[in-house]
Every structure is written in structure tokens, then in C-alpha cells.
Write a structure and sequence with these properties.
Blueprint (H helix, E strand, L loop, with lengths): L1 H7 L6 E6 L5 H14 L2 E7 L11 H18 L7 H17 L24 H14 L1 H11 L3 H22 L4 E7 L15 H8 L1 H4 L5 E5 L10 H8 L4 E3 L13 H15 L5 H6 L1 H4 L3 H11 L3 H15 L6 H16 L4 H13 L5 H8 L4 E6 L2 E6 L1 H4 L5
Parallel strand pairs: 1-4, 1-5, 2-3, 3-4
Antiparallel strand pairs: 6-7
Helix pairs in contact: 3-5, 3-7, 4-5, 5-6, 8-10, 14-15, 15-16
Length: 406
């Protein structure tokens, strides 16, 4: 993703999609990307979209408003001042329309002068204005729908205003400050719920396929996280046509190869990750030397890494449960096996016979095809995806392999 911005399209807007299993380290990867782009003299706006959006009920207008808010807030902090006349008029119209018709049972949206839009010495805070609107809309379905009734027929105009009054003038000022451009990273948009819109269309397909053309119209570099399930959707080709790119997928860290042999590189990465958290102030070589202080044997650490399947959050969860159980170091192999058995029994109770049959098929074929497989297996973390020189392949969560039912 970095190369697309810094090497190939520095002066042209880009729009990229990023996905992977929930908990596999996407946010960590995006934070690393942000740090690298900052070193390359880009102005980077990173934010977690679920802090501003109701993920059960999202529309394109909501996303655009949140992007405008986050970008303007970041620019204000960097002393980039923009006139924003049309945007100001747009916000005043929204607050006027919503403020008049809200019943006493609803939370009323105040007008511009009331709700904290900073107006001192002729300055105007776009971010404060949008924040008041989006916060109240997130917490009130009625206000959210009224806001959309106003925004939806004006989406094209809103995109134009964001580009001409916010993004393009900001880039010009940033470049005057020595910056190479503006990058917006929208994290956690992959967490939008798979719920149908009132007309029956699943929310992820609606946002990224039906309305994807509008999401890519911002005149700066934008990276959206998208739901992993769209890779298994019948609309996948339409998705890639809308955005003009293939989504970048962050796979699990491989603990085994396709042939079942241990993946030494992946296991080494996981060992290093665990020990870096144990001894964050030490050099990597010294961190690994500390294994006897944390685990009763190197094989115990390897067992932990292997059973995690390379799922970073799952690995961290098991360590936390293990430490709560034993409450002292070094952690023992017996304690780890207890944590594994407990987790295995809990997951096994949630799996029906038809799902076990699908798991057996994946265990044999190393393939997952179609939305049904995704919904039942991948989304529930029963199956993990890996990449190698031959491309993508799938393996059953090692915790489930422990059941002996495959």
C-alpha cells in the first residue's frame, strides 16, 4: 500500500482496500504504515471509524461526514486554515432542518451558535460542527435517518464540497509546508455488520459495491478497511471494478505449510512477537534469551505459537488466560494445556453437525469457496486463511483440530 502512494501515484489520488480476519493485526499494520508515511513527509489522518459510526446502520453520507470531520480536525491541529464557506452553509442547513422538527422525546440538535462550533477571530471549526451532528446521529436512529434524507440527494455536491473546500486547498497548504500529500486511513470499517438494508441488500455489498464509486471520489490518498466476507461475495468482481484495485489481504502468520510441515519463518515471527511484549525495552536477541524467565521450556512457547494458528489476538488472549490461571512465572506447559482444553470445549459446543462436515471438507481440500462457507467458517474463526508462493490456502483453526473430530 505504501508503494502505491509513494512510488506510483504521489501526485494522483488513490483509493485502496485492506482486509483480513478480525484480530489478525490490521490496525497494527495500518499504524506501522502511518508511521512510515509520516517519515516520507505525508500528512496522515488515521482514525477508527466505529468510534463515530453505528456499525449496524451505516450509509455513504455518514462515512463522508466522518472523514471530513477527522481530516479537518487534523488540519486544524496542524495550523492549516481554510475558508469553508460552502461547508459552513451546508452544516447550518442541516442543523436548521433537524433542529426544528425534533420532538421533545428526541435529543435536539442545536443550531450552529449553540453547539460549540468555534467562532473566534473569524475562525470556524468544521470538525467541531460535524462532531456534534454525527455524535447525536449515531445515538438516535430517528435523527440518523433524517440526516440521510437530507444528505442522500446531495451526495455528489457534498463530495464536491469536501474536495474543493477541504482536501484540495489543504493539500496545497501542506505542500507549501513541505509535505508531499494527504493520506486518509479509515480503520475498522470492516466491522460494519452483515445486516440487510430495508430493501434487502446486505450492508457491506451496499456500501462497497453499490456505493463504492462514491467512496473513491475523494481527491487524496484513501485506504478503507473492508469486510473480509466481500472477498467471497458474488459481487467481488463488481467490487474490484468499482475501486479499480484488488483488496490487499493481511493473512494469518503461517505456523504450518500446505504440506503440514512447520513453517519456520512464521513460528520465528510469533516467538519474537511474544518475547517483544515480555521484554519491550530489550534488543530482539536479548528478548529471545529471556524465554526461560517466561516459559518453563522453549517447547512450551512453540506449542503456544502453533495452537494460535498465527492469529495474533487469539495468541494474546491465551497468554492472558494462562497468566490469570497460574499467576506466576515461568508459565508451565500444564497450564497451557488446560487453557487449550478449556477453549477447545467451549468452541466445540457451538459447532453443529453440518459445520463439522464443512470443516472436514476444508481440512481435506484447503479451500473455502462462496459466501456460505465464509459466513459459517471464516467469519466465526473456525478456519484461517494463509498465503504462500502458490497463493491463498485455508486451514482449520488448530484449536478445533485438537478435538479429533476432523
Amino acid at each position: 500500500m505504501k508503494a502505491q502512494i509513494t512510488l506510483f501515484s504521489e501526485d494522483q489520488p488513490t483509493c485502496q482496500l485492506f482486509t483480513g480476519h478480525i484480530g489478525c493485526g490490521k490496525s497494527t499494520e495500518l499504524s506501522r504504515l502511518k508511521a512510515e508515511l509520516l517519515k516520507e513527509d505525508f500528512h496522515v489522518v488515521y482514525f477508527e471509524s466505529d468510534q463515530d459510526l453505528e456499525m449496524n446502520d451505516v450509509d455513504v453520507g455518514d462515512i463522508l461526514l466522518v472523514i471530513a470531520r477527522q481530516v479537518s480536525e487534523s488540519l486544524e491541529a496542524s495550523q492549516v486554515n481554510l475558508p469553508l464557506q460552502r461547508f459552513r452553509a451546508f452544516l447550518e442547513e442541516i442543523t436548521r432542518l433537524l433542529g426544528y422538527d425534533v420532538t421533545p422525546l428526541e435529543v435536539r440538535i442545536p443550531r450552529v451558535g449553540e453547539f460549540g462550533i468555534k467562532e473566534k477571530q473569524g475562525e470556524y471549526s468544521l470538525s467541531a460542527g460535524i462532531a456534534k451532528i454525527t455524535t447525536r446521529a449515531k445515538n438516535s436512529p430517528t435523527l440518523r435517518h433524517r440526516l440521510r434524507d437530507y444528505i442522500e440527494p446531495r451526495t455528489k455536491t457534498i463530495i464536491d464540497v469536501i474536495n474543493t473546500e477541504l482536501i484540495e486547498p489543504a493539500i496545497a497548504q501542506l505542500q507549501h509546508q513541505g509535505k508531499r500529500g494527504l493520506v486518509v486511513i479509515v480503520d475498522n470499517l470492516d466491522r460494519v455488520e452483515i445486516v440487510p438494508k430495508p430493501w434487502g441488500r446486505p450492508q457491506p455489498e451496499y456500501l462497497f459495491v453499490d456505493r463504492g464509486g462514491q467512496l473513491r471520489q475523494l481527491n487524496c490518498h484513501v485506504i478503507y478497511t473492508m469486510p473480509l466476507g466481500l472477498r467471497f461475495s458474488k459481487d467481488y468482481l463488481r467490487l474490484t471494478n468499482r475501486f479499480g484495485v484488488e483488496p490487499k489481504v493481511l493473512p494469518m502468520i503461517p505456523v504450518k505449510q500446505r504440506n503440514g510441515q512447520e513453517c519456520q519463518e512464521g513460528m520465528a515471527r510469533l516467538r519474537a512477537m511474544v518475547m517483544a511484549r515480555a521484554f519491550p525495552k530489550l534488543a530482539p536477541a536479548q528478548q529471545l534469551e529471556g524465554i526461560p524467565e517466561v516459559f518453563d521450556a522453549p517447547e512450551t512457547l512453540d506449542r503456544l505459537c502453533s495452537i494460535s494458528g498465527g492469529h495474533v489476538r487469539e495468541l494474546q488472549t491465551m497468554i492472558r488466560e494462562w497468566m490469570i490461571l497460574e499467576q506466576e512465572l515461568p508459565l508451565s506447559r500444564a497450564g497451557l494445556e488446560y487453557v487449550i482444553r478449556t477453549k477447545c470445549n467451549k468452541i466445540r459446543l457451538t459447532i453443529e453437525d453440518k459445520e463439522w462436515e464443512l470443516l472436514r471438507q476444508v481440512h481435506k481440500s484447503q479451500e473455502v469457496i462462496g459466501e456460505d462457507y465464509y459466513r459459517l467458517l471464516v467469519r466465526n474463526l473456525f478456519v484461517y486463511e494463509y498465503y504462500d508462493a502458490q497463493g491463498s490456502w485455508f486451514a482449520v483453526n488448530p484449536i478445533l483440530v485438537e478435538t479429533g473430530k476432523l
